[in-house]
Amino acid sequence: MYNNQPVQQNAKSILKTAKIIHLALLSGQLMFAFVTISISKNPSFNMKSVNDPFFIVAPLLAVSCFFVGNFLFKKLVGNLQNKTTLPDKLTGYQAALIVRYALLEGASLFGIVVFMLTNNWFFLLISACIILYFITLRPGTEKVADDLQLNYDEKLELLG
After folding, report:
1. What is the mean pLDDT of the chain?
2. How far apart are CA 63 and CA 82, in angstroms?
3. What are the C-alpha distances in Å from 57 to residues 54, 71, 92, 119?
4. Is 21 within the bounds of a domain?
5. What is the rounded distance in angstroms from the CA atom of residue 82 to the CA atom of residue 7?
6. Which of 26-35, 124-133, 148-157 is predicted least confidently?
7. Is residue 44 one of the residues assigned to a domain?
8. Does residue 42 form part of some domain?
9. To 10 degrees, the CA torsion angle through 84, 90, 96, 100?
10. How many domains, the chain?
11. What is the DSSP string of 60-120?
12. d(CA 43, CA 36)
């Protein structure tokens, strides 16, 4: 017989999982960008292609994913204040991070694909900006404690 009971994780393992998810998503974006750069032929930086629909769509998607991701993250984290245990808060926090990361990664991958199609560095520059911001979102104990507004006891539990 299989036991279908959920596994209760401690605070440290949930935070470690969030860091691994962040690293995996970041690595995927970087590897895809490097592969795309290596296979591109004669890329150029062209700001004059206003007839190109991607010229509007890619920056608009990047900006909207940034704002929607931050809004949803804050909304989901705000809903965690009524949770009683730290593992419950961290599990919800991890879900909020994944939503935020997914939106940013989608916009970044879109920019990389458009670079691959057009050989225009402008679109890769958009993705590079998203990736740089993505790097700053790496979850750490202080950032998690600040975002979740943890009390002293919860911070001690988070530290181990």
Report:
1. 91
2. 31
3. 5, 21, 32, 16
4. yes
5. 22
6. 148-157
7. no
8. no
9. 150
10. 1
11. HHHHHHHHHHHHHHHHHHHGGGG--SHHHHHHHHHHHHHHHHHHHHHHHHHHHHHHHHH-B
12. 11
Q: Which residues are CB-neighbours of 55 under 8 A, at least 6 positions away?
A: 49, 122
pLDDT score recorded for residue 17? 93
User: Could you report the per-residue pLDDT of 116-140, keeping only the tens digit for each?
Assistant: 999 999 999 999 999 999 999 999 9
CB-based burial label for 39 (10 Å; 0-12, 13-18, 19+): exposed
Cβ pair 148, 1 in contact under 8 A: no
- Model pLDDT for residues 43-53, shown as the tens digit of each residue: 888 877 667 88
Domain-embedded: residue 132:
yes
**What's the residue count for the chain?**
160
Range(s) of the domain holding residue 57:
11-37+53-159
pTM attached to this predicted model: 0.89
